[in-house]
Amino acid sequence: MQETEDPNSRTEVVRDTIVLQLKLIVDGLRDLALMPLCLFAAIFGLIKHSERPGRYVYRLLSYGKLSERWIGLFDDARKDEMAPLKYQGKNFDDLLIKTQTAFESKYIDPEKKDLLVKKMNEALNEINGKLNSKNKPDQSSQSV
Predict the structure, then answer these.
(1) Closest CA to 47 of 132, 135, 136, 134
(2) Which one of 20, 37, 73, 136 counts the least CB within 10 Å of its CB?
(3) How many whole angstroms separate alpha carbon 110 and alpha carbon 97?
(4) How far is residue 73 CA from its own chain's centroid?
């Protein structure tokens, strides 16, 4: 982008506002597409791969991060002439971890949680074993 105009000129502000709206639309469409794709990738990875079940989800996140850079939603923030904003608080993941911990300590019995996790892993291992056995050719049916 060429920066020939004063960032505080009215035409530059109008242009940047329109560009931001377009970027928000593209970002929203990307996020809308990522929601089902991420869910499908997680389920497929959990069922198909017992050793690296997150391989598809994390690859999808890598593509998402790359598209975030391409969209450059907040790139024009560099035109801010005021003192830099410094965020020193906790991020959204910290809030989720705190909420999960509080919820689990109040409502989830640790023994039942461990049993549920164990049963889920057993079920996924069984599905994974069946899928892997279907993908391998039956050695007794192979002719020499």
Answers:
(1) 132
(2) 136
(3) 16
(4) 17
Token pair of 134, please? Answer: 């279907």
Query: One digit per residue, pLDDT tens: the chain, 144 residues?
Result: 555 567 678 999 999 999 999 999 999 999 999 999 999 999 999 999 888 999 999 999 999 999 999 999 999 988 888 888 888 888 889 999 999 999 988 888 899 999 999 999 999 989 888 887 777 665 545 544
CA nearest neighbour of 126 among 38, 46, 55: 46
Q: What is the pTM of this model?
A: 0.70
Q: Taking phi first (over 0 means left), then psi (-120 to 50 degrees means alpha), and beta for anything else, what does residue 72 get?
A: left
Structure tokens of 130? 């069946």
Q: What pLDDT shows up at residue 25?
A: 98
- Structural domain boundaries in the chain: 7-82, 87-134
Give alpha helix (H) positions in 7-108.
10-48, 55-71, 92-107
Distance CA 112, CA 126 (A): 21
Q: Are 124 and 50 a contacting pair, CB within 8 Å?
A: yes
